Amino acid sequence: EPPYAAAVIKDASCKADRPLIMQFHATNGQDLLAAAKRVAKYVDAVDLNLGCPQTCAAVGGYGAYLMYQLSTVRKIFRDAVAESPVPLTAKIRIFEDEARTVAYA
Prior knowledge:
three-stranded parallel beta sheet, 42% helix, alpha/beta, 105 residues
């Protein structure tokens, strides 16, 4: 467990800061589900970040770099949503073509 995880979870326990959605990156449903289970008692939902354009996201194959892999995004959610103890959402970037963005969403 990363050393900062305890601090993040402690901050997430503030009842005045609601609704609270914690954001993660993942390349598969098992990792997203594990993250959701880990923080479920502290948050109202978990968000999959599909918008990160940073180099680390490109190298790791997550964030905005999943925009062009719709079947992978579908699989991530299909694998995680049934057992997630909290709702799952996704932050996305827009495509140049509005119709493509709507289809992706």
